[in-house]
Amino acid sequence: MSIRTKIAAAAVSVAALGVIAAGVTPASASPGGCVWGVDACLYYHSNFSGAFNGDGGNDTYLSAWYFSGCANGNCDGSGQLVKNNTASVYNMNPRTVRIYVNSYQQGPYQDIPGYTATNLNGTLYNNNASQRFL
Question: What's the angle, vertex CA 105, arms to CA 103 and CA 107, rounded to 5?
């Protein structure tokens, strides 16, 4: 494959990612640990604002994770635990992430499909304790 073909393919891929994320205004794809294609990016505030933390793992207990990145210059929540402090999630992973109300992936949950951003529902809003990618 020629270098021109590779560059053209990369440009098409980047354009497709822009279409997928259109209409969502979370923080840029990497500061604070949110990596496109890998992480679920958990935000301190609704609508993808405040401090955030990227997590690409199946975590049974989120008390070891802290908000660190700042969305659009808003650092509210920086240094706070992710557990029981998450209001919105931008799933940058192609797999669905399931956010649970209890530790050890127990109790009520909310599924967030890959490449989707949403506020957590009333059960999980600031009441999240674990997650798992399906």
Answer: 85
